[in-house]
Amino acid sequence: MLVAEKNSLTEEIEKMVEKHGATRAALMPVLQDIQRNHKYVSEFAQQEVARLLNIHPVEVYSVITFYSFLNSEPRGRNIVRLCQTITCDLIGKEIVAKAIERELGVKFGETTKDNRITLEFANCLGMCDQGPAMLVNDKVYTKLTPEKAVEILNKVK
Ligand code: FES
Questions:
Q1: Count of domains in the chain?
Q2: By residue range, what is the domain housing residue 140?
Q3: pTM flag (> 0.85)
Q4: If you measure from the C-alpha of residue 99 to the centroid of ligand 1, how many angstroms do you get, rounded to a whole number?
Q5: Ligand 1: which of 121, 127, 129, 134 to mutate, judged by most atoms within 8 Å of the beta carbon?
């Protein structure tokens, strides 16, 4: 990261700390503000939050990993969540996952280089009788085959 970017991020976080107060209680609101503005909380941002709130960086990191709405890595414009729970697993989730990974050239847990898609596994989406199931952002797709999943993802902008 460039020095200028670091400084502007520091300034931005300082303003958030000013708004929410320089105490431990400000940790969550400050992290939410950073997540909202940048879609993730970088390692540098985590260090700055820890420094400005006078808490240990490990504590900041553990809060981010605990809450699924906070991310420590940049994410894609679209989040694809394939159900990994037992019913979907038994009816072909694995071959669907492999086909998706092959098509996009990234593994689950990763984001495509063009930032178009982040792949994640999810737990039961409540569509067990119509699995394998996946969510693309907030839309559910069911009865997936490898071909159907690839076709759906190729239409995602
Ligand atoms: S197990 Fe996949 S939707 Fe329930």
A1: 2
A2: 78-154
A3: no
A4: 19
A5: 127
